[in-house]
Specification:
The protein is mainly alpha-helical. It has one domain (7-63). The protein has helices at residues 7-21, 25-36, 40-45, 52-63. Helix 1 crosses helix 2 (25-36). The termini are far apart.
Length: 75
Amino acid sequence: MIPVINSVSLSSNVESLVSNYNLSYMDAVIHYCELANVEIEMAAQLIPNTSALYSKIELEAEGLNFLPKISRLPI
């Protein structure tokens, strides 16, 4: 059976993995891809750069120095 993957289901499943298993967002995406037998590149295409999940992954990557830090307004 091939799972139906869309951006909404991906985001909700990743958020539940983060909250239930205390994973980072990048680890949760990778773990979800392994569970659903989905290529990581396909999952990356399903995360629009305007979504909250994209922003959380971007902040996490900046904190790990994978991306250059961008100046942001305080929240």
